[in-house]
Design goal:
The chain is an alpha+beta fold. It has 2 domains: 144 residues, Muramoyl-pentapeptide Carboxypeptidase, domain 2, CATH 3.30.1380; 192 residues, Beta Complex (Endonuclease - Pi-scei, Chain A, domain 1). It is 18% helix and 26% strand. It is built from 6 helices and 23 strands. The strands form 6 sheets. It has a 6-stranded mixed beta sheet with strand order 1-7-8-6-5-3, with helices on one face. A hairpin with a 2-residue loop joins strand 7 and strand 8. Helix 1 runs antiparallel to helix 5 and helix 2 packs across helix 3. GO terms for molecular function: calcium ion binding; cholesterol-protein transferase activity; glycosaminoglycan binding; laminin-1 binding; patched binding; peptidase activity; zinc ion binding. Keywords: Autocatalytic cleavage, Calcium, Cell membrane, Developmental protein, Endoplasmic reticulum, Golgi apparatus, Hydrolase, Lipoprotein, Membrane, Metal-binding, Palmitate, Protease, Signal, Transferase, Zinc. This is Hedgehog protein.
């Protein structure tokens, strides 16, 4: 038995290595096997541009304001001084306040200082405002929490500030704003919310349909369960539950709440998780509705929009208003979107039961909201790569907005799972790792998911990955 397990592990390693090498060789011009990654061309930010293109104190950026920190408050211990000699602190108050910041802000600032010196030899990063204890900023400013800094270059050359902002984005700040001709504003998420508001999961209270009948909480899934899923053509089927790609028992996370009206269903999932929408949501060719009997009133003049010159990122921009609903039928030709991009008016797929038969039916999204839950977070993986959660069709994948790519990337995992199941029926390949054990799935992010994420960050442009796709912890 031990020899068979060792052989299975060896075959899995050989297969996975071959797939990675072949995929590198098949990329054509550009990055290939054995080649260094080309440096990304950096584009300066335009004046008044901010990245990501959402409000600073929202989930997709630095998060909500959590209260002012004073020297006498319990939270003052959250701040740490930054004595990096490569950074110049203005410290006009002579109190050292500008040097105080959260650990995450310190890490990003130190990374930016290196980038500045590499970009402009002889020039250093300069901090003009850090933690504010004197009330000099607007109400609920993140400066009061040590999570924001205003920066310039040491030579105060304003022609460099657009590129300085871009370098801040690359350094990992959660929100960067070319706020003034005199400085760049940067901020980060709160320490206690970074891990809680990331990942691609469902809450533990979500339910799945079992092949033997009835439903089961997603947190209670175990190897051997077969759950309701759908194939590429929208045909319902039952698929093997393989593993949890992420499992955090009792974790508190912020979920997007997607609600439909007819049929009335409700699904909670994290921002970076993929949800299937009807293909007409992406098409302008769908037949328009019949014209109204009376001419519509003239449209109001368009409101002025801020100047935004950056390339738009997929998780930041809502789609145009969707056309009329698709005809009833399967989910063939569907498209997967990040949950953070789903909007009222999009059409998702839900299960309809009529006369003892089930089918997928498009249902219009009625509302999208945010809700914090402490029931845990779970990302189940099925052999099909899809799953019906709370009767709504969703992908098993997150982070990258390409369901087919993600499903292909997990092909070695599925193959190894099937191989080990054949070699060791009823035993191996049951846990979250491969080779596995018949123990309960362990908590945390699956090692295969972590490996793919690392590969993805090397092969793909950073803008292709959702910023809340993987839990980020400051070091």
């Amino acid at each position: 038995m031990d020899e068979m397990l060792l052989l299975a592990r060896f075959l899995l390693l050989v297969l996975f290595s071959a797939l990675l090498i072949s995929s590198g060789l098949a990329c054509g011009p550009g990055r290939g096997f054995g080649k260094r990654r080309h440096p990304k061309k950096l584009t300066p930010l335009a004046y008044k541009q901010f990245i990501p293109n959402v409000a600073e104190k929202t989930l997709g950026a630095s998060g909500r304001y959590e209260g002012k920190i004073t020297r006498n408050s319990e939270r003052f211990k959250e701040l740490t001084p930054n004595y990096n000699p490569d950074i110049i602190f203005k410290d006009e108050e002579n109190t050292g306040a500008d040097r105080l910041m959260t650990q995450r802000c310190k890490d990003k600032l130190n990374a930016l200082a290196i980038s500045v010196m590499n970009q402009w030899p002889g020039v250093k990063l300069r901090v003009t405002e850090g933690w504010d204890e004197d009330g000099h900023h607007s109400e609920e400013s993140l400066h009061y929490e040590g999570r924001a800094v205003d920066i310039t270059t040491s030579d105060r050359d304003r022609s460099k500030y657009g590129m300085l902002a871009r370098l801040a984005v690359e350094a990992g700040f959660d929100w960067v704003y070319y706020e003034s001709k005199a400085h760049i504003h940067c901020s980060v998420k709160a320490e206690n919310s970074v891990a809680a508001k990331s990942g691609g999961c469902f809450p533990g209270s979500a339910t799945v349909h079992l092949e033997q009948g009835g439903t089961k909480l997603v947190k209670d899934l175990s190897p051997g369960d077969r759950v309701l899923a759908a194939d590429d053509q929208g045909r319902l089927l039952y698929s093997d539950f393989l593993a949890f790609l992420d499992r955090e028992d009792g974790a508190k996370k912020v979920f997007y709440v997607i609600e439909t009206r007819e049929p009335r269903e409700r699904l909670l999932l994290t921002a970076a998780h993929l949800l299937f929408v009807a293909p007409h949501n992406e098409s302008r060719d769908w037949p328009p509705p019949p014209p109204p009997k009376l001419p519509p009133p003239p449209p109001p003049p368009p409101a002025a929009q801020p100047q935004l010159a950056s390339r738009r990122r997929p998780w930041q921009e809502p789609r145009p208003p969707p056309p009329p609903p698709p005809p009833p039928g399967g989910a063939g030709g569907r498209r997967a979107l990040f949950a953070s991009r789903v909007r009222p008016g999009h059409w998702v797929y839900v299960v309809e039961e009529r006369g003892g038969a089930r089918r997928l039916l498009p249902a219009a999204v009625h509302s999208v909201s945010l809700r914090e839950e402490a029931s845990g977070a779970y990302a189940p993986l099925t052999a099909q790569g899809t799953i019906l959660i709370n009767r709504v069709l969703a992908s098993c994948y997150a982070v990258i907005e390409e369901h087919s790519w993600a499903h292909w990337a997990f092909a070695p995992f599925r193959l190894a799972h099937a191989l080990l199941s054949a070699l060791l029926p009823g035993g191996a390949a049951q846990g979250p790792g491969l080779p596995g054990a018949p123990d309960a799935p362990a908590a945390g992010i699956h090692w295969y998911s972590q490996l793919l994420y690392q590969i993805g960050t090397w092969l793909l442009d950073g803008e292709a990955l959702h910023p809340l796709g993987v839990a980020v912890k400051s070091s």
